Amino acid sequence: MDNIRYLSQFNLMACLSESDxxxxxxxxxxxxxxxxxxxxxxxxxxxxxYFVKKGTVRLYTINVEGKQFTLDMLGEGNVFGEM
Length: 83
Known about the structure:
The chain is an alpha+beta fold. The protein has two helices and four strands, in the order ααββββ. It is about 20% helix and about 25% strand. A hairpin with a 5-residue loop joins β2 and β3.
C-alpha cells in the first residue's frame, strides 16, 4: 500500500486534499521498530508525530519514586507525538 493511501486512512488525515497528502508523504517515513524499542522517554523531548501501523505502543510517565505508570496503550490506527 502506498504511503498516501495509508495516510488517508487515519481519521486525522481523512479531510486532507490529495495535494496535502502528497506533501505529507514527502515529510514522512515508514520505519519498523523491534519490540521493546524506546521511541522516547518521559524525560526526553523528541519532536515527531507517529502513526501506529501495527503492534502496540505504551505511553508512560515516571512517578516521584521512579516507577513507571502506564498512561495509555495505543494500537493500530492510533497517533501520538510532540510537535
